[in-house]
Amino acid sequence: MPLDPSRYVQLGTVECYRILSGMWQLSSSAWGKYPNQDEIVKSMREYYEAGFTTMDMADHYGPSETLYRRFLQNLAAHPGPSGLPPPRGFTKWVPSPGPMGRKEVERAVRERMERMGVRCLDMIQFHWWDYSDKRYLEALRHFKSLKEEGLIREVALTNFDTQRLKEILDAGIPIVSNQVQFSLVDRRPELRMAELCRATGVKLLTYGTLCGGLISPSYLGQANSPPAPSLTPSQRKYMQMIQTWGGWSKFQGLLKVLDEVAQEKRNQGLEADLSSVAVRWALDKDFVGGVIVGVRFGITSHISSNKAPFHISLTETDRDRIERAAGTGERLLQVIGDCGDEYR
């Protein structure tokens, strides 16, 4: 049965649900104590059966890869509803500087296969810390070979800039996506990378689109920014972005406009809040393949609200109002640099 193109994007040979369930929250106890793994797996299954078929994880996101294996085992033992596409697990490799020979790269791939309990990785997303060390090209050539040998379905990047993405594509290495930060606060991808994506077909998988949950009704109308101790690690990171972008007062203006647009959608009988409007705005960009929304499996469930962006549409007037409140990405581009430069 053909997949709904409004909810799925094809990344090479892999179908990706356009709202991915992010598992960064498993990387640290700073988000709070997690329940036992059975509860997490149960929650992962609930999201999957609700249609959230794609999960984003990493080698450094705590036990995310091994939990995905347990989820697959649970699904194999107790099959879910028919008609759903198979689950997809997108993982990452974020190596420290060092040798990038065939042996090292294949070992990294097989480690992830073992942890995730799969015979072939759906996607490996590769990060590199230092562009002056050109061994990232060597690693990616080995990934290409491993893809041709059937150990990886698709090769992707995370936090690479436009210059290096073009260099990699020009080297003949097939890349289907690049995972980068993109939101109404951080619009840097529109300034450089979007044009390359349109020319090559590479899609962006975006994180930080809700600024770690700061773009939410919970923070609307708060005159003062929340104290740092009350924030998660993700929110502390995005508070720094907000301050560089324009500050808390400007951020409140953006939330107000998003809420006004959401209210207009609710007046039409649609489920919408300012968060779903912000996600819908990102999904409407032609260079965006999907938006990663963090999920605290087993603690909270936002299945209905996470689906809400699929039920609303934005008019040109909506987008103009929202983008006037957001401004461009020029300020962050000047201060930080291109996509991913905040990590270098």
From TrEMBL:
Residues 19-324 form the NADP-dependent oxidoreductase domain. It holds the Pfam family Aldo_ket_red. CDD domains: AKR_unchar. Transmembrane segments: none annotated. This is Aldo/keto reductase. It comes from Gonapodya prolifera (strain JEL478).
